[in-house]
Amino acid sequence: MIKTVLLSSIFLLGFQSVVNAQNAALSFNGSADYIEITNADQLNFASNFTIEAWVQLDKTNGTNFILSKSWCGNSEYAYTFNVVDGKVRWGWNNNGNCNFSSMVETTNIIYNPGDCHHLAVSHSSSMVKIYVDGVEVPTALMLGNYSNIAPSTEPFRLGIYKGLNGNFLYFMDGKIDELKIWNTIRTPQQVAFSMNNALLGNESNLVLYFDFENLIAGSFITIPNKANSTGASLNGQSSATSPLIEQSCAVINNLNVSENALSPEAVAYVFPNPTNGQLTIQLNDLHSKVACSLYDVQGNLIMMKRCDAANTNLDISTLANGVYYLNIGTQVVKVVKH
What we know:
By secondary structure, this protein is an all-beta fold. The protein has 2 domains: 24-247, Jelly Rolls, CATH 2.60.120; 256-337, Immunoglobulin-like (Sandwich), CATH 2.60.40.3080. It contains 1 helix and 27 strands. The protein has one helix at 188-195, and strands at 24-29, 35-37, 49-57, 63-69, 79-84, 87-93, 101-106, 116-123, 128-132, 135-136, 139-143, 156-158, 161-162, 168-169, 173-182, 206-210, 222-223, 236-238, 244-247, 256-258, 268-271, 278-283, 290-296, 301-307, 311-315, 322-328, 331-337. A 9-stranded antiparallel beta sheet has the order 11-7-6-5-4-12-2-18-17, with no helix packed on it. Strands 1, 3, 8, 9, 10, 15, 16 and 19 form an 8-stranded antiparallel beta sheet that branches. A 5-stranded mixed beta sheet has the order 20-27-26-23-24, with no helix packed on it. It starts with 23 loop residues before the first strand and ends with a strand.
């Protein structure tokens, strides 16, 4: 496992407080447990949306369902995301009738037992893209045609599929972490960025965010939705046999997230922060040469500059007020422009 460090608490007046997250994920046993969100219109997408999550599988032969909002028994098939014999598959239907479903699958095997990957799928009426570890991978349209997706009154479920007769099938055997759903097509750059970064919850177009942190094990546990725009209306609930809360395989490369980093291991100190437009990046190692990249909260690259002196100046006076993230080597500094 690679250690994951999520966004830490706010840094004030130069005091650093980097917090190691619990790195929690939900571990599904492959036979009984799942998560369910009561049917909500916010999770009925006709087109133009993106779903992403970290997924680790203990078993790859047969079918593991990551998520689904569908039931063939009542013409309520909307969409499904699963792994079949190691290949990642996205399925959908434009009228709810399973006899007319469509399916896109990766051309290569992605999973062997124990493998951990960040998966993302973006769906439009004319194209489906699947990403593995932040990179788009080759896919094939195995069935049907590209189209919009029919709405479904079925609940949104993690780790399970509802069969034709109403019984549950294809239980997932593995872990899920950092589930993020957006009501927009995310660019490849945005997918790659959010793969390795926890969210604040107030990001534009964010509909659902499960980070699975700070949960207490038990039956019928609540999974809080941390997307501000939808909040508790999209909270999930576990089955009676709840998934276990275990160590996650999710990877967050940015080990330090701060407003002002003063610790000896920090790459740089950034000031003034908050700022009205002028930033100074002071490298701890006067001989260092690192890339300094500024991103907005959506993961869009705003500017990049080479930092190779004791002090490097960055002018962000023309940017809108708000929160940005400055990557300095392996360090990330939260920058507030006001």
